[in-house]
Amino acid sequence: GGPAAGPGPALGRGGLEALQHTVGSVLSSYGWYILLAAVAVYVLVQKVSRSLAARPSGRPGAAEAAEEPDVVVRRQEALAAARLRMQEELNAQAERYKEKQRQLEEEKRRQKIAMWESMQEGKSYKGNLKLNQQEVESGASASTVPKSKPNKKPLRGGGYNPLSGEGGGTCSWRPGRRGPSAGG
User: Fold this and answer.
1) What is the pLDDT of residues 127-152, one digit of tens each?
2) Fewer CB under 10 Å: which end of the chain, C or N?
3) Is 74 a domain residue?
C-alpha cells in the first residue's frame, strides 16, 4: 500500500498546484469583472428580498377588503355616482354650447336677411348694418352728443410737394445721365 499512497498525495499536490495556477490566471485576467458581477448579484438579491418583505404587508389590506364587501360596494357606488355627475355636467355643457351655436346661426341668418333686403332696395348693405347698429345704440342712450375730432396739425407743411424736390430735407434723388453706357 506504500507505493500507491506515495503517488496519490503527490498527484493531489500537483493537481492542487495546477488548480491554483488556473484560478490565479483566471482571477488575474477577469478579476474585476468577477468582482462587479458579484456586487450586481448582491444588489439584486437585496432588492428582491425588500420587495418580498413589502408584499405580505400589502396582502392583509387586500384580505381585509375581500373580507368587507360592504366597503367595496360603497366605493363602487361612490365611483358610479361621481361618473354620473361628471356625465351630467358634460351633457349640460354640450347643451349650452349647442344653444350658443343656434343663437349665432340665428344672428347670422338675420344679418343675411337684412343684407339681402338692403341690396334689394339698392343701398349699401354694410352701411345699412352700421346705421342699424347705431340706431339701436342711440335708442338705448337718448342724449348722444356727436363728438368733434380735435384739430390735428398736418404732418408736413402745405407747400410740400415730393415731386418738386424742394423742402424734402437733405435727401434728394437725381436721375442719371442719358446716353451710351460707360461699362465695358
Assistant:
1) 555 666 666 566 555 555 556 666 77
2) C
3) yes
